[in-house]
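Board work, copied verbatim: Phage-related portal protein
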Amino acid sequence: MAFFRSLNTNPDDWAGQYLSDGILPSISRGSTVGIGALKNSDVLTAVSIIAGDVARFPILEFEDKDDTFVEDDEVTYLLNKKSSEIISAYTWKFAMVANAILTGNAYSRIKRDPRKRGPQAHKPLEFEFFAPSQTNINQINTTSGAKYVYQFTPDDGRKMIECKPEDVIHMKFFSTDTILGRSPLLSLGDEMNLQSSGVNTLSKFFKSGLKSAVLEVPGSRLNKKARKKIREDFEYAQSTGGNAPVIIDSTMKYTPIEVDTNVLNLINSNNWSTNQIAKALRIPAFKLAVNSPNQSVKQLQEGYVKYDLPFYLTPIKQELMLKLLSDEDRHDRYFDFDISKEIGMAVADIATLQQNGIYSNNEGRRELGKKPIDDPNMNRYQSSLNTVFLDKKEQYQDQKGGEGNESNTGIKNDTI
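↓ predict structure ↓
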């Protein structure tokens, strides 16, 4: 199937394909993608963790040349505080990431100020979120090649809105054609169905398993109709009697069925599906209540932020740079998530790097998640007077041995 449709395509043809492939959200029973996937508690937890982590990290703008902060109130305000008139930045980022995982795609229209011209013309005013079900990507074939546009259908009665790609933030984490993303949940159909079957087995056991029994009528040959009648009468007596005893006569023999609880324990303790969900969504299994031996929670969390979360952070940074920065600014600036408070170095380690001339004071402040101080001295590198370059070591020793006299190198000791 095509991932985008031509403008002359029948609009009734594409929706079913999008739903079946998980591009549009679905609430159908047993769906492994879209909103229906949130019925699985492991998927709900994993999506909440990833979307919450991405949303809580501030997005900052930096200069390429020295990695210093750029005080761009208009853009960073939208990304970190208020994305539109009615949506906070946290809510907007959470919804975008959640939709990108569940359906493969998340969309927001960039509203720009039409009154601004020149270098300020690209500055956004707000981000207008649209659900995947309200969005369609159309291909337009021209003499210069194929182009595509985004079409949004608001649910408040407004007319359809058509936007160029540069005016749309389109988040996607996995794509095979660069146009549309695919949900990682598409690979979890068997695992999620296995979990559902296990839950249904437990539910049936607790609903009827404790009452399962064999009711015999010795010395009788009952036909199908008679057996059905006795079963219905006995089930009626059980359902209406509550905890009261069931009365049977001497012609009947009641034998309870023993249920092997080892099967139930196996269902209840099976973590295979949970591990598969964690693997597909790139989060450590301990976040889904699965024990991870031989590693501390701190080590697992740092590994998750350093090596797994970038799978989500990097596409978002690239998309924001592409859509929110002008071509000129992209050569000199970049966006990045501030995760220093999560995996930042200890203060003692930063101090050691500063004393050895590896970090300036402002670079050390950045590692701690603090803004730089506007003082030229804060950008200077420090060095200890107790060290000497290797190629000057012998010269320094000769100089020390001279006890203040000129050595054969011609350098006085008091100049060191």
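The two ends are 76 Å apart (CA to CA).
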